[in-house]
Amino acid sequence: MIVDRQGRRFRNLRISLTSACNYACTYCVPNGKRLVAAQDELSAQAMARGVAYLIEAAGIERLRITGGEPLVSPKLEAFMGAVGQMGLSDISLTTNGQLLARKLPLLVDAGIRRINVSLDTLDADAFRSIARGGDLATVLEGMDQARAAGIKIKVNMVPLRGQNLDQVMPLLDYCLARGYELRFIELMRMGHLAKDSNAFLQQFVSLQQLLSLIGEQHEYLQANAPVDATAVRYEVPGKGFFGVIANESVPFCRTCSRLRLSSTGWLHGCLSSSNRHYVGDLLDQPRHQALPALQGLLMKALGDKQEVAFSGGATVMKIIGG
């Protein structure tokens, strides 16, 4: 088992199935151009082999499928069919929800029981302005259908000053009423926002600002969360839960157990590091050759993690998912 001096190891793998996306959200894609699949993306079979090798080499226990937008990928069915046989304790998926209703039978058949839906507003006009694509009603209907199918839903919202701060309470109340757990995600200093501190500060909303808004209408108590959780979790007694992924306000680097694999075969040990490690060539090798080399790269990736707090990074979130 590969462990660093702080006792951290990789338990959670997030794999970007594709860099393609049917949205072009303002905080992810500043030029407004929709993302397409990279020409050198790995096949479903190679990605599945990568997961199998990482389970053995790093002790990966949980898998989250991300993008881009994973539901637009033609590799989705073959990949999920393969990883579903690997004995992972949990397989989940993050989506913008636009294709959720259409892909729901596939997700149910593949055993997906948890999804995160990225949703920044309940205002249809603001939705189009932020996402630069899609349709709000279609997303909400897909979530309702997923809930009816027994899938547990978390909603990811990035509060942005001047864009959707007025939606914090409507979205929280909407989620509490339906049993969805809302996760507010503090804006991160990544990609173009790492280079433009003014743009970041103009839009950033902190944990304390969010709690002040929520406290005006709801009483809440801090709730328990797993030791390596990214979110500070709260309970609204009698109504439900919400959380804040407070990357800036309450850094969680000391307990981070996440490893990311891009759709083009690069390992990322830390979002705050520009380092990456290519494993695509190893995935065509037999196990006895691939594993020793992979373990060496994993040690480097673990060494990329920040010791205390995220300090920003040039890595673009759209390349490696959430």
UniProtKB/TrEMBL annotation:
- GO biological process terms, semicolon-separated: Mo-molybdopterin cofactor biosynthetic process
SUPFAM superfamilies in the cross-refs? Radical SAM enzymes
Instruction: Give the SMART domains listed for this entry.
Output: Elp3
Q: Which CDD domains match?
A: Radical_SAM
Can you tell which superkingdom this protein's organism belongs to? Bacteria
InterPro entries from the UniProt entry: Aldolase_TIM, Elp3/MiaA/NifB-like_rSAM, MoaA-like, MoaA_twitch, MoCo_biosynth_MoaA/MoaC, rSAM, rSAM_sf
* Gene Ontology MF terms: 4 iron, 4 sulfur cluster binding; cyclic pyranopterin monophosphate synthase activity; GTP 3',8'-cyclase activity; GTP binding; metal ion binding
Q: State the name under which the record lists this protein.
A: Cyclic pyranopterin phosphate synthase
To which species is this protein native?
A: Pseudomonas orientalis
